[in-house]
Amino acid sequence: MEFIIERASEKDAEMMADMIEKVWEDIENKEWFVADDIDYTTRMLKEENGLGYKAVEKGSGTVAGIFIVSLPGMREENLGRDIELAEEELGKVAHMESVAILPSYRGNGLQYALMQQGEADLREMGYSYLMCTVHPDNSYSRSNVIRQGYEVVLTKEKYGGYIRDILLKKLF
Fold first, then answer.
1. For residues 146 and 130, what is the distance between their CA atoms, to the nearest angstrom?
2. Model pTM?
3. Residue 107: CA atoms inside 13 Å, Cβ hemisphere, count?
4. Are strands 50-57 and 63-70 parallel, antiparallel or unpaired?
5. How many CB atoms sit inside 10 A of residue 66's CB?
6. Which residues contact residue 54 at a Cβ distance below 8 angstroms, ignoring those fewer than 6 apart?
7. What does the alpha-carbon distance between residue 172 and residue 169 come to, in Å, rounded to a whole number?
8. Taking a C-beta distance cutoff of 8 angstroms, is the pair 58, 5 a contact?
9. Of 52, 108, 112, 168, which residue is 20 to 30 A from 4 by alpha carbon distance?
């Protein structure tokens, strides 16, 4: 199978939220993944608070996976605050937020491909810090982001009491 990574638009928000929900429903350990809803997804794509990507299977045109990047700016939820990043650096932080791959398409490197496209775009946009959170026991996602150069910088409760590793990749 071949895939094309495309930027998502506001019109993709419902499809992306549905995919996140479907993947969440299939996860055995629900605390491993905090599912974004349609309101959050639309806000990321519509209000320029983030970027969206989709992996499209070339032959069928089926969307096999999605990825959302959040651009938190100076807001309180900026993960840079958790690691005590200097105030003047917070605007250079992007959150590699949510990746959802449909079960039948897993094993094709789509999480990696989606994140690499997001990273390339963020580098062009002038972002310096890529951050994400992963449940410490989610070995697949954790090893995938570590393989891409992220390092665990802190483990703490996030998202209403869920334990998370906070990972960082510097682009400079």
1. 12
2. 0.88
3. 4
4. antiparallel
5. 26
6. 5, 6, 8, 12, 16, 63, 65, 66, 67
7. 9
8. no
9. 168
| 24-56 pLDDT tens trace | 777 666 565 665 666 777 777 876 689 999 999
CA dihedral 120, 123, 128, 134 (to 10 degrees): -20
134's tokens: 């992963």
Q: What is the DSSP letter of 152?
A: E
Tokens of 101: 């791959």
Number of neighbours of residue 89 by Cβ within 10 angstroms: 12
CA distance 2 to 33: 27
- Pairing relationship of beta strands 129-134 and 162-170 according to DSSP bridges: antiparallel
> What is the token pair recorded at 105?
């398409």
CA–CA distance, 52 with 69 (Å, rounded to integer):
6
What are the helix (H) ranges across the chain?
13-26, 38-46, 79-82, 110-125, 139-147
Query: How many Å apart are CA 4 and CA 60, to the nearest integer?
Result: 11
Which tens digits make up the pLDDT trace of 110-164?
Answer: 999 999 999 999 999 999 999 999 999 988 889 989 999 999 999 999 988 889 9
